[in-house]
Amino acid sequence: MKLYLGIDVGAVTTKFAALDESDSLVASLYLPTGGEPVAAVQHGLKQLHRQIPPDAEISGVAATGSARYLAGAVVGADLVKNEITCQAVAAIHSVPDVQTVIEIGGQDSKIIIIRDGMVADFGLNTVCAAGTGSFLDHQAARLKMSIEEFSRRALLGTDSVRISGRCTVFAESDMVHKQQTGHRVDDIIYGLCRALASNYLSDIASGKDIRPPLVFQGGVAFNAGMVRAFREELDIEVIVPPRHEVMGAVGAALLVHERAPSGPGRFKGFGVSDVDYRTSSFICHACPGSCEIVRIMEDGRFVAAWGGRCDMWEQDTVK
Question: Going by C-beta distance under 8 Å and a sequence separation of 6 or more, which residues neighbour residue 249?
Fold first, then answer.
C-alpha cells in the first residue's frame, strides 16, 4: 500500500494525515506541539507508524504550518508548502464547490476566498490572539471548565450579553465585569463567541466577498458556540467537515500525492523518531541585511538552514 503523508506543525498543535492512492484518509493525529516542534514531529511519527498497515510504504511527504521548514528537514519532505494553499486544497477536496474557507487555529486565523477551484483572495492574522483557540482555552480555564463544557454551554446562552472582542485584554476584563454584575455564565460565554466572530469578520475578513458554501476548518471549529456565532453573524450555513482539525495536513498530503516523485521519495523513515536533532541560530553577514538564520543538526551533522531574506541558506544539504 502506498501512502502520502502530510504534516502540519503549528504553534499550538501538530497534525498528521496519511492518505492512500484514492486520497482516502487512512490515519491521522492531532497532538500538542508544546513549544517543541521537533519533538512533536518525532512523537507523532512514532504514533502514526503504529496506526498504518504494516505493509504501507510512504511514497511522498509534505510539510506545512508555521514550522514547515523545520518539519521538512526532520522528516525529509518532498514538498514544503504554505498553509493557505494546503487549507484551500483540503477544503476543495471535502466540499468541491466551496467558495469561502474560515480557518482558525491555536494562535492564528485565516480566511480564504475560492473561485472556480482556485484561491482568489485571502487574509490572515498572526499577531493578535483575539479570536484564536488559545484565547478560548484560556477563558475556559479561567471559568474552571473544560473547553468541551465551554462549547456546550455556549449553545445554551442568548445574545443578550455584549462582550468587547477587539482585544483579549479588554474581552477578559469585560467578561469579569459582566460576571460581577450578575449575568448568566452561559450568556457571557456565548456573548464572547459572538464578539470573536464579529471581530474576525470586521478585521481578517474585512472587504472579502464571503459567499456560500462556507467551510469552517481548524481546531476552533470543535467549538459549537463559534460555529453558531458565525452562522448568526453571516446568516448562511457553516459547513464543518469531518476531521476539520487536520485539514492542513490533509491538503499537504493531497499536494504531495499530486506531485509525487516517480522514483523513491525523500522520506527518511520512521526511524527519525529516535534521532537526536538540535536547532540553533546565527547571524548571516553575507550582506548588510544581517538575517538571523536557523539551522538544524542531526546527530551533530548539519542538515539544513533557513530564515534569510534571500534563498542563500534555504536548501537542504541532505539529498
Answer: 6, 7, 8, 15, 16, 17, 28, 64, 86
Give residue-wise pLDDT tens across range 177-234: 888 888 899 999 999 898 889 888 988 999 999 999 999 999 999 999 999 999 999 9
d(CA 287, CA 69): 23
For residue 20, the tally of other CB atoms under 10 A from its CB is 18
Which pTM does this prediction carry? 0.88
**Architecture of domain 97-240 in CATH?**
2-Layer Sandwich (3.30)
| Phi, psi of 175, deg, nearest 5 | -65, -45
Which residue stretches of 95-167 are H helix? 133-142, 147-154
Q: Was domain 2-86+249-274 assigned CATH 3.30.420.40?
A: yes
Domains of the chain, residue spans: 2-86+249-274, 97-240, 276-319
306: three-class secondary structure by DSSP: strand
- What is the distance between the alpha carbons of residues 178 and 180, in angstroms, rounded to a whole number? 5
Q: Does domain 276-319 have CATH number 2.20.25?
A: yes
